[in-house]
Amino acid sequence: MTGRETSQFDRSIRIDGSLRIEDSLGVETDHSKLASAKAKFENYLRSQDINLGVIFAVLDTDSNKIITAQEFNQKVRAMHMRLDDDEVNALFRHLDINNDGSISYNELVEMFAGLNTAQIVKKMQKVILGSKVEPEFYFNKSCLSDPTKQKISQDDFTKMVRSLYEKVTKPEIV
Question: Is the pTM of this model over 0.70?
Answer without folding.
Answer: no
